[in-house]
Specification:
The protein is mostly helical. The chain contains eight helices and no strands. The protein folds into two domains: 12-71, no CATH class; 78-135. 64% of the residues lie in helices and 0% in strands. It is extended.
Amino acid sequence: MYEQHNDPSRVRQISLEPWSGTWDDDDPNSNFKADVALYSLVDPLVTLRGLSAATELPLGALAHYVLARFATAGSSGMLELGPAIIQRLWEPVAQAEETGDDQDRLRAYGQLRELLEWLRGPLFDVNLSMTSYETGGAGGRGEA
């Protein structure tokens, strides 16, 4: 059974506030700031209140979940991909940036595209998504 924790020292409060600030064209965070400004037009509490009513979970618990899930999404992605794949994806970028040459960057894009195509292959090719159990072994359908 789930035990409720109502410890007041664990309660944290924030104010949900819209933001429509300005930023320079060369701001490295300009895409993120544009997203923040865009999503400021939406009231997330409408959805969270409906979800709270439907699931009988406290509104604050749902808000905590959404924030924690978003805040840890990068870590979750790393766990899902694994450090070896992340390093393989990063290597062409690092090499291209080291030279600073646009042709090297274009080659890095090609390498990244191929790696991502390989990673997403099982999503779109049923033969690639079958496990060895489903296919009767590593050799393919019905082979042991």
